[in-house]
Each structure stands twice: as C-alpha cells, then as structure tokens.
C-alpha cells in the first residue's frame, strides 16, 4: 500500500508539472490587446500619481481670427501658427474664412513637413456656416494615432435656429477607450452668447438621445465673458447650472491677446469618460503664445486675438509593466513545490530501483471479495503473468508464463521474492538499466514531452 501511494504521488507530480509548464507557455503566446485603461481615482493625489505613468493627449481649441491666404503668405505669422498647432495632439480650429480651403491645405503641408513622418497630422473641415455672406468654417487637426474620426457634420438647427454658426459635430474614438466620444466645435455669436451657450445643452441632449453617446466635449470660442454674458445672466444658462457639465476653463482665465482680460474661450465636458479622473488636474489653461514665443502685442494680434485653450487627457495603458494577477502569482509560487515533490519521488525510485510505477490488484481467493496489492518489479512489465500460485515452500504469489519467477504477496517476504525472481532479473539486465529513465519519468509524461519538444 505504501508503494502504491508513492507511485500515485509520482504520477500526480508529473501531471502538475506538465500542466503548469503548458499553462505558462500558453500565457506567453497570448497577445495582449488594447483595452480600456483602468480609471484614475477621483482623489487628486492618486489621480496625479496614476496620470504621471500614462500617456497624455493634449486637446486644444483655437479661434484663428479670419484665417486665410494672407496669413499663409506672412512667414512670421505662419511660423507661429505652425508652432501652435503642432503643440497639440488634437486641436479644434474656428473662424477659417478662406473660401478656397487652400489656406488650410497649405498649412497642413507645412505642419507635416515639420513633423515626424511616423506621426503625421490629418484634418477634417466642415461646410461653411453663417447667416451672412461672411461665412466661415470649422476644422479639426489631429494625430491619427491618438484619435480616429468616424463621422462629422453640422448640427441641424433649422427648426429652432438658435445658432448663427451651427456647431460642428465630430464623432471620434480616443486611443484606449472602447466607446465613442463626440467633439463639438463652436463659435458663438457675441451678441447672442447667452442664447447660444444655453442651446448647447439641447445639442448635447440630441447627441445622447440620437447617437447614444454620453461622452461629449464642447470647446471653442463661447464669447462667454465680459459684456457678452453679464454675471446676472449665468443663472439662465442650463449648460452652466446643470451638475452634469464640467467647465474646465474658469471665469478667471484670460483667453484674449492684448489689453483685454476676458474668458471668451471655454472647454466644457460631460459623461463618464471625463468624470472618472481622466482630465489631468492643473492642465486646463490658456496657452499664451505671445509670452512663449516672445512676441509683442502687435505681432501677436497678427496671429490672433485669442489664445488657444487646452486640457490634457490621460489615455492609453500604463507605461510601467503591470504585475501579474494574483492567480498567476500563485501559480508561479506553487511551481517550486511541484519540482520538489518530483525530485523526492525520483530520488525514491532511484534508491529503490526494483519498485516500478505500476501496480495491480487481484483477487486472492475466488471465494472472497477481499483484495490485496502486489507490486511488480520493472522487469515484470515485459512478462506475461499466468495467475496466482505457490512455490515449493508454500509461499503464495504471482507466476510468469515460464514459472521462473514468483512475486510474493507480503512485504515481509520481499527479500525472498528478490531471490526467487533473480533468474528473470539477470536475463533482462539491459532492460533494467534502460528502465531508470522510465522510473523517473512515467511513459505518458515522456510521450507528452516528446510531442512538445
């Protein structure tokens, strides 16, 4: 019984080792796919800690102030605009007045000449908008490795006619996020600022109801300050008072070039994507390009009378290697135990070479159902057993077909069994030597290893 227990342990040990190696090898072959990253904590300290280990996407909005061919032909102005646009991964542009669209095309050519070929910029441009002959266009410039644009169109405002320049609706997919996000680019008419900013709530409701998208970022020139939106008017603006909307650019931010100090340009977000900590704290601001590029007021105003506004979004997967899950860690820690058990079993079989890995159970007496165990030497694997019998001394055991060997039933007679079976053992010396590998590794395990390697 003791030997059978050891035999079972040997087979179980090898089975566990093979299963462990197989599972580990399989895990190495599985390729990981980009999935939604784990949300950053809402607490500031944890948010900053997590964000510092992740990729950032810089999103901006810029009113280019009558952007057309004259600005393209002014090298100093063009150089500054290129630097501004290249600063961002995604930037929403407004007040493009060139009817031929050549200004935007030439700008993009210049930008990509100055950019990495591995990460070129792309753009989309809207139809012309406006109630008067002085129409303009929106554009979105972006790196294709950061976002993918699925569709874009102007909001249909024909019934309410709330907007002088209809918002540009852009359906995109951000890197590392498995749901769509809608970008709304807007240039609000100054004298109708209160009405149009409030009406953006209706646009967001339409997006959620029709497109089934909750994650929305609204950005652009809201004209949301100074004389255009008096302080007492804010209470009538739903976009400002509803808790679901987060105004990232505050009223205290100066988004204008020159002596004015007004927070005209804004970024407003809503939806789970922007509420679970992806907006990196302290990154929502106006980019004062005149100070950065050392421009005087006159030269800065030739570029635009607005500063770009921007935010940084944490995207993608962590840059550091993620530790294995608890189940994998447990599997790795158990592997040395399997090896230790296998080593002990192999050592036991080497010390006791006459004990094989196979055992049989037979009826001792046809008149009883009692069973006893009989261990076979390794040489018995090639021997045909004829049945149960006795030798001349009355000892009971198994006989082979030549009646030359008797395997005794009792462990106490094991030494006599070795003497009786010496004839068979001496006639198969070469097989006994070659069976040492068999004793250490069961045959089924050797076949499996051979099929793998």
From TrEMBL:
Residues 27-49, 371-435 are annotated as: Disordered. Residues 1-22 form the signal peptide. It comes from the Eukaryota. One of its GO terms (molecular function) is deoxyribonuclease I activity. GO terms for biological process: DNA catabolic process. The keyword Glycosyltransferase does not apply. Pfam families: Exo_endo_phos. Residues 61-306 form the Endonuclease/exonuclease/phosphatase domain. Residues 419-435 have a biased composition (Low complexity). Residues 400-413 have a biased composition (Polar residues). Keywords: Hydrolase, Nuclease, Signal. GO terms for cellular component: nucleus. InterPro entries: DNase_I (IPR016202), Endo/exonu/phosph_ase_sf (IPR036691), Endo/exonuclease/phosphatase (IPR005135). SUPFAM superfamilies: DNase I-like (SSF56219). Belongs to the DNase I family. PANTHER family: DEOXYRIBONUCLEASE (PTHR11371), DEOXYRIBONUCLEASE I (PTHR11371:SF35). This is Deoxyribonuclease gamma. It comes from Folsomia candida (Springtail).
